[in-house]
Amino acid sequence: MQLLDVDPGKATNRTVVTFVGAPEAIVEAAFRGIQKAAELIDMSQHEGEHPRMGATDVCPLIPISNISMEETAQWAHSLAKRVGEELNIPIYMYENAATKPERQNLADIRKGEYEALPEKLKKPEWKPDYGPAQFNVKAGATVIGARDFLIAYNVNLNTTSSRRANAVAFDVREQGRLSDKETGDRVRIPGL
After folding, report:
1. Residue 143 three-state SS
2. 2-146 carries CATH number 3.30.9.10
3. Cα(34)–Cα(14) distance, rounded to whole angstroms?
4. Is 18 helix (H, G, I), strand (E, B) or coil?
5. What is the C-alpha separation between 60 and 23, in angstroms, rounded?
6. Does the CA dihedral 17-22-23-25 come out positive or negative?
7. I want to staple 56 with a disulfide (CB 3.0 to 4.6 A). Which of 22, 37, 39, 149 is the partner?
8. Domain coordinates of the chain in residue numbers?
9. φ, ψ dihedrals at 17, nearest 5°
């Protein structure tokens, strides 16, 4: 296994860790990383600009070579089951490992963020895929999945308007935005 990148973000108060290796080693390293985050991070004391719902917010497994997306999704489920059972963290599956179509999109799962979890976990439609349907005050919840590469970058804009910044983001991001201006129906307008 090889560590490729550690990218701490001060404003977002999160760190992105990227590593590559054989599936068994990756799943073990991811488990240990999630375990350590749950020990060290107290979400009830956490603040940051980026949407988040857990000490380990999201853990995507990405197939690089000699493994299919389906196999990667199986590894994601194996990791999620272990994290849920051994660490008592509610786990939601997303993207290619999603158990329900409405859980494919990370933003839909994160809606309401950490602060909404106590009520969200009481709803049958938000029962975790793995782990307890109980609020873990310290660790929150984690989203685990299998997906393709994601290219993300930050841009500084010369404005304090979050409305304008969001408009730029929706224009650029692949999934675009929802619009109902013309017909009253919610239609997805793809990004550029």
Report:
1. strand
2. no
3. 13
4. strand
5. 13
6. negative
7. 37
8. 2-146, 155-192
9. -115, 130
Contacts of 7 (CB under 8 A, 6+ apart): 15, 16, 17, 18
Outline where the chain has alpha helix (H).
23-40, 69-87, 106-110, 113-120, 162-172
Tens-level pLDDT at each residue, the chain (192 residues): 666 656 666 666 677 888 899 999 999 999 999 999 999 999 999 877 778 899 999 999 999 999 999 999 999 999 999 999 999 999 999 999 999 999 999 989 999 999 999 999 999 999 999 999 999 999 999 999 999 987 766 778 888 888 888 788 777 776 667 676 656 667 777 777
Read off the pTM. 0.81
Residues with catalytic roles: 50
Can you name the residues that pair with 6 across neighbouring β-strands? 17
| Element of type H or E holding 91 | strand 91-95
Output the six-digit token pair for 17: 């860790």
